[in-house]
Amino acid sequence: MLIxxxxxxxxxxxxxxxxxxxxxxxxxxxxxxxxxxxxKLKGNGKTFGYPLITNYGQLLEEAASNEDVEKVSQLIxxxxxxxxxxxxxxN
Length: 91
Fold this sequence. Notes:
about 90 residues, mainly alpha, 4 helices, elongated, Four Helix Bundle (Hemerythrin (Met), subunit A)
């Protein structure tokens, strides 16, 4: 399946919304919601051509399972950088 630039742009913009949610959940220490978003990231990043997003999803899911706030925060920061970089590449 070939993914168009428009589809990739839409996908990455949705990730920006999730990053905002992840930051909020991290500040609340709501690890269940973090795990739910992380699981989605893990499952769909590769499909859209972003295996690094899949990797961050997996790591975030693990960090949330361990209730590691520092690791979760760092991964959200890294994910945000990755999404921003890929958005800039598409524009």
